[in-house]
Model the fold of this input.
Amino acid sequence: MSASELGDLFALADAIATAVGGATAVEDPRQRLLAYSTVAGQALDEDRRQGILGRQVPASAENTEQYRVMFAADHPVRLPALGKGDLPRLAMPVRAGGETLGSIWVVDGGMLAADAEETLAQGASTAALLLLRARAARELARHHNSDLLRRLLEGTAEAATAAPRLGIDGALRVAAFALDAAADLPDAERTALRLLDVVRLQCEARYGRHACVLVDGVVYALLPAPEAPGGTGPEPRRRTHEQRHRALAEDIVRRAGRALRIPVRAALGAVVPGVSAVTASRADADLVLRVLDEQLPVASVDEVRPRVTLLRLTQLMGERRELNEGAWRRVMAYDEAHGTEYARTLICYLDAGCDMAGAARLLAVHPNTCRYRLRQARQHVGIDLDDPDERLVLWLQLRALAGLTGASS
Done:
C-alpha cells in the first residue's frame, strides 16, 4: 500500500481504538498487520507486541482456531485469551459483497465501551471502503506499469521516465515465461492470464512493487540486478544474480506447472546496464524460449549461447539473399533430383570434424562408402572440401537453413 493508504488505515485504527476503548489492529486475510492504533494508555499483551514487530500475527494452533471462528461470523465476536498473560479480543471480519478483505482486532483490557460491538461493526464498514479503494488504486497502478513495460519491451517508451515509474534503477534482465507450446490448451488465453498471476505474485513477493506483462502468450518480468554488497568484483556479483534469478525462475516454473497442470518454460535474457537496453535482453529471452524443452525447462542466455547464436544466424541468413545462396542449394537440389544422400553425408562429415571414421559411424555405413559419396559430391556438385572457408559456410548453411545435423541422422 502507498503511504497515504496506510495513513488512512492507521487513522481508522486510532479512531476505532478511541471509540471502542481498546488497542486496535487491522489485518489482511493472510494475517499480515496493515495498521495498528497508537492511543496512549490502552492495555497490550505479548501477542500484540510481536504482531507489531513482525507485521505478522504469530502462528499457533489456537490462533488458527480463533481466526476460523471469527471469519465464519458476520458480526463482532468475543474471543478468550489464548494463554497466561494474554488478553481477550473483540474481532470482526472485514467484507465487501461477500468477499473477505481482512479483519479488525481489538484488545479487551476490561475497559471496552458498552457499544463496542456496534462501533466495531461501523469501523469494519469503513475499513472495507478503504481496502477496496486501496486495491483499486493498486490495480490502476499495476495496469499503467504493465502498459509501460509493454512499450518499454517494444522500444517505444522513454527509458529515462520509465525507470523511476517501474521502481528499477540500474542493471536488470528480462525473464520470459511461457506455456509449453506442445500442450493442447482449450483455453490458452485464460491459462496464460493465470500464468501472469503466478509470475506477478512471486516477483512482487521478492521485489515489492513490480511490473509484469503478458504479450502474445509470453509473460515478461524485469528482474533487478543491483550490485551485491561485499563483492570483490563483477564476477561474484554476476554469480549472485544468476543464482537468485535462476532460483526465482525455477520456483515459478514449479509452482505454475502444478497450478496450471501444464509444463512451463522460463528464459533469462542477458543482464543489461539499465532500462534503455531492455529490448536486447528481451530479444535474448525470446530466443532462449525457443531452445527450451522438457529436459531443459529453465535456462539463461549464457547457458545456451551456442544454440541461441545459431538461431540468430538462421534468422539473419534466411532474411539475406547473399547469405542463403551457395553450394548447399546445389547439394540439396542434386539429392532431390537423383535420390542421393550427399547433404546427409556432408553434414555428418563436417559434424565429425572431417573425420571419415566418425562420419561413417554417424551414417551407419562403411568408411569407404562415406569416402565415395564425398568424392561424388565434389565431382557432381562442385564443392571444395579442402577450402576451410567453404567447409565453414557449407556447414552453417546445411545446419541453419537445411536444418540438418549429424546427430539426428
Q: What stands out?
A: The first strand starts at residue 24 and ends at 27. Residues 228-232 have pLDDT under 50 and may be disordered. DSSP finds 15 helices and ten strands in the chain.
